[in-house]
Amino acid sequence: AAMMLPGMALAQVGDARFVVSKNFTDDNPTSIEVTITCNTGIPLTQSASITEDSGVGFVVTSFDPILGTCEITEDGEAGYTGTYLANDSLPSDTSCLFEDNFAEGDQFCIINNAPTPVPVAVSKVWNMEGAGGNEVETDSTFYITSMGSISGGYPCIDGPIGDNGYNCAMLHFYGEDTQSVSVTPAVGGTDVYIEEMNLDSAVEVSNDCDGMVTVAPADAGASCTYTNTVFFEGIP
C-alpha cells in the first residue's frame, strides 16, 4: 500500500526520522496507534495513528548516536498478530528496536499484522433409538472448506465445495466426539463450510449451523453439532 506522511516535517541534517508503515494481510482498513520511545533526543516519546494507506515519520533531533535507542510499538488490533521489521534486522514479534543501527537520516519500521487463527469445533452425536438391533457403521468423515487457511489443511482439489482459492481439511470421526480445526479469518468474516460424508444409508443427518459457520478476527470461536439419527422402519 502507498504510504503518505501527512503533516510530518522532513528530517534535517543531524536528525533521525523513523518512517513507520503498516500492512494488514487481509487489508483491514482500521487505524492503529503507534508509539516511538527513545532514551535520547527530542522528543523522547511520540504517537500517531496510521493505516495501510497512511504511515508516519517520527523525527528525533539532538540525539546521542552512541547511547541512542529508540523502540516503536503498536497498541495492537484485537484478533491480529504483529510482526515488526526494523531496517534490515530480523523480524520481531514485540517491536522495531533501533539500537546498534541508530543514526541520522531515515530509519524504517514495517509492521505486518495477520489475523490470529480462530477455532471451529465440530461435534458428533448419535441417536440410535431407531436402530432396532441392527448394526450401524458409526465412522464418518467431515469435509471442512473455507477461503481462509485451515490448520492441517490443503488447497482444495476435489471436495464438496472445493474450488480454486478454497482450502480443505478432513476430520475422521469414530462414534461420538468433538474435534476442532483452526481457521484464519479475514476482516468482515470468513465462511467455513462443514459437510459430513460416508454415512450408512439408514442414517439421517441434521445440524445446528445449516452446514456453515462464519468466523472473524478476535472471535472466540465457532461450533456446529451434527446429530445422526438411525431409522430402520419397515425392515424386518
Descriptive overview:
- The protein has 236 residues and is mostly beta strands.
- Helix content is 0%, strand content 50%.
- The protein is built from no helices and 17 strands.
- It has strands at 16-24, 32-38, 45-50, 56-60, 70-74, 80-86, 96-98, 105-115, 118-130, 139-146, 154-155, 167-174, 177-183, 190-197, 203-207, 212-215, 222-231.
- A hairpin with a 6-residue loop joins strand 2 and strand 3.
- The protein is rod-shaped, with a radius of gyration of 26 Å.
- Mean pLDDT is 88; it is low at 1-11.
Beta strand %: over 45%
Spatial separation of the terminal alpha carbons? 69 Å
Shape: rod-shaped
The radius of gyration is: 26 Å
Helix-strand makeup class: mainly beta
The count of strands amounts to 17
Topology:
Blueprint: E1 16-24, E2 32-38, E3 45-50, E4 56-60, E5 70-74, E6 80-86, E7 96-98, E8 105-115, E9 118-130, E10 139-146, E11 154-155, E12 167-174, E13 177-183, E14 190-197, E15 203-207, E16 212-215, E17 222-231
Parallel strand pairs: 1-8, 9-17
Antiparallel strand pairs: 1-4, 2-3, 2-5, 5-7, 6-8, 9-13, 10-12, 10-14, 11-12, 14-16, 15-17
Which terms would index this structure?
236 residues; mainly beta; five-stranded antiparallel β-sheet; four-stranded mixed β-sheet
Short summary:
This protein has no helices and 17 strands. The strands form 4 sheets. The chain has a 5-stranded antiparallel beta sheet with strand order 11-12-10-14-16, with no helix packed on it.
